[in-house]
Specification:
This protein has seven helices and six strands. By secondary structure, it is of the alpha/beta class. Strands 1-6-5-4-2-3 form a six-stranded mixed beta sheet, sandwiched between helices. Strand 2, helix 3 (about 60-75) and strand 3 (about 80) form a beta-alpha-beta unit. The longest helix has 22 residues, at about 170-190. The radius of gyration is 17 Å and the shape is globular. About 45% of the residues are buried.
Length: about 200
């Protein structure tokens, strides 16, 4: 009988290998196509003077922060995350929590930018509202979701990554890995010059 530890890592491995990828209108695409299109969107956005934007709640907010700095520092693609505490409490207080990311997109997003919308459940109202505003502005959208196969976020992106698991920890770890792969693939295609170390 396998230990709980073995079962945990087996489930994590399955979550990553059985990840589902779709394009607009739910068209199924394979993993290579999904990453190629995501990287193309990110490079086009930043290559034309735009930026990448990341949103998420809770654990997904942590992933959003992590990825924004990695895309900027390691990927050479300007990126930011909209989870500053003062901004969230100000906008939540003034407009309601559903608007905390949408308002920031209205302040900062420009046509051609790209939004990475991260939600374990794929049904967080503030994430869905952020996508709605991003589309109104003319941004590209990449969604990263989990839990139920019919979650609404999964149908809204130019590229949609879906992890069909209902355990928060597994979904969040899988989401971190699958988004990080975009940075790593970019570095493989177009590596940045390594910074000189001053001794």
């Amino acid at each position: 009988m396998k230990s709980h530890t073995d079962l945990y890592f087996e489930e994590l491995n399955q979550a990553l290998t059985k990840m589902h990828c779709t394009g607009p209108k739910g068209r199924v695409i394979d993993r290579a196509q999904a990453y190629e299109r995501t990287l193309q969107i990110a490079l086009e956005a930043t290559g034309q003077g735009g930026k990448l934007m990341f949103v998420g709640n809770g654990g997904s907010a942590g992933i959003a922060s992590h990825m924004a700095i990695d895309f900027s520092k390691n990927g050479g693609m300007p990126a930011l995350c909209f989870n500053d505490g003062a901004a969230l409490t100000c906008l939540g207080n003034d407009f309601g929590y559903e608007e905390v990311f949408a308002k920031q997109l209205q302040f900062h997003a420009r046509r051609g930018d790209a939004l990475f919308a991260i939600s374990s459940s794929g049904s967080s109202p503030n994430i869905l509202r952020a996508v709605e505003v991003a589309r109104e502005i003319g941004c590209h959208v990449i969604t990263i979701s989990g839990f139920l196969a019919d979650n609404p976020l999964r149908a809204l992106g130019d590229v949609n990554f879906y992890v069909g698991v209902s355990e928060y920890g597994i979904v969040e770890v899988a989401h971190t890995a699958l988004i990080h792969a975009v940075v790593d693939l970019k570095r493989a295609v177009a590596p940045l010059a390594r910074p000189q170390v001053v001794s």
